[in-house]
Amino acid sequence: MMHRNTKINGLLLLVVAALAVLPLALGLGDHKEEPFSGSDGEAESAITELQPDYEPWFSPLYEPPSGEIESALFALQAAIGAGVLAYYFGLRRGRRQGEARARAGVSAPVEDPALHSARADGVAADGGTADRDGRAPSPSGTGRTALRGTPEAGSSGAGASSPDGPGA
Questions:
Q1: All residues at 6 or more sequence positions from 126 whose CB lies less than 8 Å from its CB, including other chains
Q2: Which residues partner with 147 through β-bridges?
Q3: Could you give the 3-state DSSP secondary structure of residue 118?
Q4: What are the pLDDT digits (tens) for 116-135?
Q5: 142 has pLDDT over 80
Q6: Are 149 and 112 in contact (CB under 8 A)?
Q7: 37-66 in b/e burial notation, b at 16+ Cβ within 10 A?
Q8: pLDDT tens by residue, 65-92
Q9: What mean pLDDT is predicted for residues 133-149?
Q10: Which contacts of 109-114 are long-range, i.e. CB under 8 A and separated by 24 or more positions?
Q11: 6 Cβ contact partners less than 8 Å away, ≥ 6 residues apart
């Protein structure tokens, strides 16, 4: 079964593909000299048709030497903009997830060095026995294992208690 977000993403991808392919497939722009020119060129041609003696108020600060360089600069501008947007949305999502974790009372897992103190031969660094995962046999005799450093493992001192009761 697909998740709802997967279906929405797939549908959006199809819409974007249709927007890219349909103008080409339907032959839109075939009657023009430059079928898919930019809006700047379209505006300039429309203005010169209406008022042939029109003079622009200002000229561009930088005129690229060729159309290829102009296209490359436009693509670079779009990539930088996409990067800024992706950073913003990623930051916003991370903050929202962090707030949700804080509300739920869940914190990042803390590594206990005692968990990694077991050697390959099953002997813990403190001389006791442990399995590969750093677990010590339960002192309660229930056959369950406990993580080293937990009260059930008996490493918290003389007054250690277990789920079976104190000193069991």
A1: 117
A2: 135
A3: strand
A4: 554 555 555 555 555 555 55
A5: no
A6: yes
A7: eeeeeeeeeeeeeeeeeeeeeeeeeeeeee
A8: 988 998 899 999 999 999 999 999 999 9
A9: 53
A10: 112/147, 112/148, 112/149, 114/147, 114/148, 114/149, 114/155
A11: none
